[in-house]
Amino acid sequence: MSDIWTTAKQSMKAQLPGHTYRMWIDNLQWVESDGDKIVLGCGNSFSRNWINQRYLGIISDALESVTGTPVSVRIDIAEAPKKKPLKKKNYQQAKSPAATQIPVSNKQMSLPNIHKPSTAGRIFQKGFTFDQFVVGKSNEFAYNASLSVATDKKLAGNHLYIVSKTGLGKSHLSQAIGHQIVDLMPQKRIYYVTAENFANEMIQALQKKQMNQFKEKYRKICDVFILEDIHFLSGKDHTQDELSYTLDSLLGVDKKIIFTSTYAPNEIPKLHDNLSSRLSSGLITQIDSPDYETRFRILQNKAAMNGYVLPEEVNHYLATELTKNVRQLESALIGVAARSSLMGNQIDLKLAEAVIGNICQQQKEVTIDTVKKLVCKHYKVSGDEIISKSRKKAIVIPRQISMYLCRKYTDHSLGEIGKSFRRHHATAFHSVTAIEKKMKQNSNIKRQVLYLCDRLDGDFSE
């Protein structure tokens, strides 16, 4: 009977993408068959649920093609092979039923809250798991690569670099890896930090003369290293050097390393060649903006999670009009639900249009020139001044904010944004990161940027 399954697998291998076949089909085991009923085994409940949702039809069709008759396929969790009990000589054992049912193990029993995995001060968000991540064409490869790293399948190696714009799910996937490792391998020590926190921690270690402890933590104690927003280290020479040494140590003993960024390694300016080479040595995977089908299923999933009853026509409207990112979909869904609750109205198409109509209408019109005109008007500078060589603070800040908003609201590359301001790619990158940093440190700058964001999200014509 296993020959039937082998033939069916060959058929599916020709139909499915290679990474999908290796991840979900190749490891399935033939368990048993009874007439037209076939049972296949997988490794865990997550795999079983995912295969049932995505690939059960394909598997059934392949088996029916081989057998020539309709079949009913069930996916079960395959049990690990049972080991034969060790024979002990020169000992007399009481042959009580209780004694024979208790398995002999040479492992020490684990105690609650012992070896609890560390995330270096940052906590994984509860909903950022693989089963809550909606997979589509725009993110399928990134999802499969992340799951491979998390489940030790070695298909993508142990070094992953996830690239995407803000709000598309790179942090969700990086934390899902952490969640999955905690579930499958709770003894693993996970360090999950942002690049900014890593740099600040290193500075504190230098000031307190505790660099040996810092190196020990990341180079020897760490089993899984998840570093968010690696582009923050642009121009930070000493931190880059330390990170390079840390990566050498971790890669040398095959530890898991996951990076996220809004930029690919070769797009980050002022990044040492040796660090850029190490970042590029693993698998680099990109998440693009979700297509309509994925946006529709994201809204369904988020509505179900939050207990919202969303009519299909409203779901269709939101998925059609909101094309930017997942956060935008979540924000619109919350807005529709809140308006319904506060006004005592049912969620319908008219209510949804009232909530997001203006946003959708204006969002399509945002261009680099739109941003320039809005910022120039707000700061009372001319179009010539904002693209000039002037280093006056009154000109530099509006210029940097303009580049930040262009990156946020348009699909133009950093090179294209820089060129529109008569600047290089590296200058555009510096402007974006400078404003991101200033928004954290300067409440006045943050208020100004948020005000301009509100204008771009709404009616900015006047």
From TrEMBL:
Protein known as: Chromosomal replication initiator protein DnaA
Organism the protein comes from: Candidatus Magnetoglobus multicellularis str. Araruama
UniProt GO molecular function: ATP binding; DNA replication origin binding; lipid binding
Sequence segments annotated as region (Domain I, interacts with DnaA modulators): 1-95
GO biological process, one term: DNA replication initiation
Keyword set includes DNA-binding: yes
Subcellular location: Cytoplasm
Domains (record comment): Domain I is involved in oligomerization and binding regulators, domain II is flexibile and of varying length in different bacteria, domain III forms the AAA+ region, while domain IV binds dsDNA.
Domain of life per record: Bacteria
Region (Domain IV, binds dsDNA): 341-462
GO cellular component: cytoplasm; plasma membrane
Domain AAA+ ATPase: 156-288
UniProt KW keywords: ATP-binding, Cytoplasm, DNA replication, DNA-binding, Lipid-binding, Nucleotide-binding
Function: Plays an essential role in the initiation and regulation of chromosomal replication. ATP-DnaA binds to the origin of replication (oriC) to initiate formation of the DNA replication initiation complex once per cell cycle. Binds the DnaA box (a 9 base pair repeat at the origin) and separates the double-stranded (ds)DNA. Forms a right-handed helical filament on oriC DNA; dsDNA binds to the exterior of the filament while single-stranded (ss)DNA is stabiized in the filament's interior.
